[in-house]
Every structure is written in C-alpha cells, then in structure tokens.
C-alpha cells in the first residue's frame, strides 16, 4: 500500500483524491491546503470547467491535515507526494519533495517556465525516488490506442495530424489563479500543453514551429493555433485554449492520417473513436478508465515494482515546456522558428 500525501484540494486535487480513495494499492494519509474549510472536509467551493461542479462534505477521519505543504512533505508517513497546486508553485514544492526523499507525482504542466522545469528535472535526476508529471493524454484510452496502432507500423507512416482542445475559462479556481496569466500561463500553457505533449510523444521534435495566439480572460494567450513541420512534408496542426464563452463545453478531438488509415476522435460528437481503413470503419477496443486514473495507477505500480516510469519522464515533460516556449518565440517573431534546445 503506497501512502500518499496530496497537496492542493482544487479540481485536480479532488479528482486525484477520488482515484486514490478507490485504489486497492494506495492510501491517502495526509492532505495539505491553505484553506482551513477544505481541511475540515467542506469541499463545496471546488469547481472546474469539466463535468459536474457539485462538491459536498468529505469525511477526513484518519487523514492528517496541514495548511503548510512543507509540513506534509516532511511527514515521515508520506511516501508519495502528489502536487496539484498552481503552476507557479510547482518547482518549489516538487524540488522540496524530491530532496525530502519522496516519490513525486506533479500535475501538468511541469512548471511555469523552462528554467523552473529544468531545475525540477535536475532534482529528479539526483533523487533515488520516482518522479512523473501528469500528462494524462498519454494514458487517455483513445489517444493511447491510437499511439500504439500507429507505432505498430501496420498503418504506415504518419501523413498529417490535427489536434484540438478547447473550453470555456476555468473561473472557479481558488483565488481565480487560472485567470492570472503570470501564475497559470493562460490557456496556452495549461490546456494547449496536452496536445503539444502528445504531438512530441507521437512524432518527436519537429524541424520548424509556427504559432499564432490571441489574448483572453487570463490576460495571457488563451487561444492558440500552432503548426509543426517534420521531415518529408509531414505537418501537425494544433488548436487549443479556453477563450470560448460559457457555457461552451469542453471538447478534445483529433484526426490523424497515415499512409493506410485515418484515425478520428471527437468527444463532443458522441461517436466512438473510429479508424477508417481498407474501406472499413473500425471501432477498436479501448482500455477502461480515464487518463487520470490510468496515469496514477501506472505510477503507483512503478513504485510498487521498483520500476522507473518511462511513459512520461522528466525529460519528456521538460521538452513539452520548451516546445511551449518555442511557440511563444514564434508568436513574438511572427514567423516560423527552430525548436528551443
């Protein structure tokens, strides 16, 4: 049984808590949040722009609570520190937990800047414990199966990729921190990063990157269109952000064309993930659960089996932050640029 200390009881902290609560090999032993009401079990203020926003009372009997996250990090009973705090706090807390000899699961994005992400990666490299960033799309059933089918080589090389992830602004976060671009990076960093990471996972680093973006409610870039150019004329096009007006629903979708098939998923359509090939429509069997549950299950399994996580690594998460910063460089330059090394 892996003993977990969870820092931050917002939308993602609540989501992770529910997963651990039902997990046969994990147990929440400590919680940290500056909000005293949340530590008393009043979670009615927790919101989100995905799914239901209804939260109630939670029985926290037997769970230690801390208002200072460093106290949780230094609790000897905690083996795994799960950090679901605002992005600008990721580096400070993740590095502290790694130095304290804890396994660390860090919610995405890895950090607010490439410099901060690099510092985390260096701390993870020095630690004897395991570290992973919550890039859940690598574990999301439709995306995972698509990745595996394409990497099998059965459907030939990739010809083009379209990725889209859009939502209305997340206005219910604690102190409305998502709408402070200096803290969250806006929709470009917080939401768009999912598809940036998936593109790198599937295709590796591109030759050139171009991007256009518009500012939105966070006062930062909340709507972005980006294009990645790969050898052989292969292009990845990504649209993302949270500049859409409520009650515009969250949606994620992709269309990927290879030499022998087209892979299509559109969550809002209500239709199943479909592969079009050889004149047929195939609906592949998908693993159960969400990407959130599957990524935490994977990390817990790695800890128990003493196996270093490889699906998401500190380097791959750092690369995603660098790609975000490459897109920023393209926006500023008004032209295509080479990826930041």
Overall pLDDT level: 96
- Spatial order of the strands in the main sheet? 8-9-10-7-11-12-13-14
Count of discrete structural domains: 2
Radius of gyration: 20 Å
* Helical segment count: 11
CATH topology of the largest domain: Dihydrodipicolinate Reductase, domain 2
**Low-pLDDT ranges:** none
Q: In words, what does this structure look like?
A:
The model has no long low-confidence stretch (mean pLDDT 96). The protein is 32% helix and 25% strand. The radius of gyration is 20 Å and the shape is globular. A hairpin with a 3-residue loop joins strand 9 and strand 10. It is of the alpha/beta class and 341 residues long. The termini are far apart. It contains 11 helices and 14 strands.
